[in-house]
Amino acid sequence: MEVFRGNTKDETTVLDKINEIKESYGIQNVIFAGDRGMVTQAKYEQLDHELVKVISALTHSSIRKLCEKGIVQVSMFDEENIVEVIDGGIRYCLCKNAKTAAKEAKTRQTLLEKTTQELDKIVACTKKTKYSKEMRAGKVVTQYKMGKFIVFEGQGESLRYMLDVAKIEDEARLDGCYVVFTDAPQDFMTALETVENYMSLMQVEQAFRNMKTVQLEIRPVYHKTDDRIKCHVFICMLAYYVLWHMKQRLLPLSQDDGVGASRKNTFDYVIESLKSIRIQSVEVCGTKSCVVTTPSDELHRILRLLQVVL
Length: 310
What we know:
This protein is an alpha+beta fold.
């Protein structure tokens, strides 16, 4: 286990970690799956692609560049099927998620409404302030990151703005669209397997989310020395290892337990149930003994699945 300093960029760790895997475990052919932040264009070009293959995803700006070059078209994105396009040895797997599309559209609309509300106030303001209307308007579009959709006209008291409808519509065409790419050959990994392997990164992200704030609460860290911080992280990693095995053993508990909010036997519910077990010290006529809580049938099943004997 290795712990990096908090100001370390993810992309700077890629090359060293890949080389370490190859040297430590004797693996010659490596397929590295990383998110957009880890596999930047610069890092991708530095890799030895004869020995290391990559699975990652494109940013929205990179997707637009592919569209501008004519390599892919927006009409090729499909909600049911993965469309594969090969260019220069790179396989692009085009996907679309309807739920993500609706979420992105709603978010953009909300941010645009907040932006225009603030801009309307600035344009209508007749009172002199410390900062010019241009500066205040610039601060607003920066805050909501909607500057690319706003066109300003005039200066000072005559400052006006309008929405760039064409850009908004162009942006909307890519809502829910994403592209997973790889340089691994087709006979080694299909398009579906490529996308599934990339999506499996969500499990890693969920694991760290659980460790940081949800279930194990690795943060905040109050230690002052590197050794103590590493020890703290190691204990949390060990705890997550136990947690993962618990979830694997408890899978039968949730097989017929519904989905979403209707689920009863969630992991949190299991933990709360286990907390009900107590060991009480009882003294009768000078004789002391320990009494363990008698588990209910439901709790007994949980203990049996966890292979724990009271």
